[in-house]
Amino acid sequence: MLKETVISHLIKPEDLQHHGTLFAGRMADWLIETCFIAACRLVGKPEDVVCVQIHGINFNKPATSGDIIEVKARIALVGVTSITVHGQAFNNEEKAPSVTGMATFVTVDKGGKPYAYGLSLPEEYIAQNREIYEEALKVRGSR
């Protein structure tokens, strides 16, 4: 339920932009998709999860053709209907992330109306993930 979601991608020539590095839109797609999967795993109903806000994506280092990108996502904060997820991408198993970002999702019924999914984060999980929890509180507070 609260394990880290990890998805890997091989950078191919069709993923590159005119400078020969990974197109930011492709990376954003992969990052938000991984965050979405993390939120869906928490709720257990992918059909009920929708993205309502991307809080920002920071690109720290470019990737090029042949690089392997590992995208990781962890639940950062939960509300009554919302789930904020923190994502990071790493080039070729480097220690420092090349990309970071956060997105918030909500659970909606078949009519598109938000509903309470009834889950919370255990205190131990929050303690282990304090940095992203506090970051999520900040970005969610600025809405």
List the helices and strands and how they pair.
Blueprint: E1 5-10, H1 24-43, E2 49-59, E3 68-78, E4 82-91, E5 99-107, H2 123-128, H3 130-141
Q: Could you characterize what this model shows?
A:
The protein is α+β, with helices and mostly antiparallel strands. The protein has a single domain, classed as Hotdog Thioesterase (Thiol Ester Dehydrase, Chain A, Roll). The protein has three helices and five strands. It has a five-stranded antiparallel beta sheet with strand order 1-3-4-5-2. The protein is globular and about 45 Å long. The mean pLDDT is 95.
Largest sheet strand order: 1-3-4-5-2
CATH architectural group: Roll
Shape: globular
Low-confidence stretches: none
What portion of residues belong to β-strands?
25-35%
CATH topology: Thiol Ester Dehydrase, Chain A
- The assigned structural class equals alpha+beta
- SSE order: EHEEEEHH
Count the helices. How many? Answer: 3
Main beta sheet strand tally, sense and closure:
5 strands, antiparallel
Number of domains: 1
- Classified in CATH, the superfamily is Hotdog Thioesterase
Helix percent reads: 25-40%
Give the C-level CATH assignment: Alpha Beta
- Mean of residue pLDDT? 95
Q: In angstroms, what separates the terminal alpha carbons?
A: 27 Å
Number of DSSP strand runs: 5
Radius of gyration: 16 Å
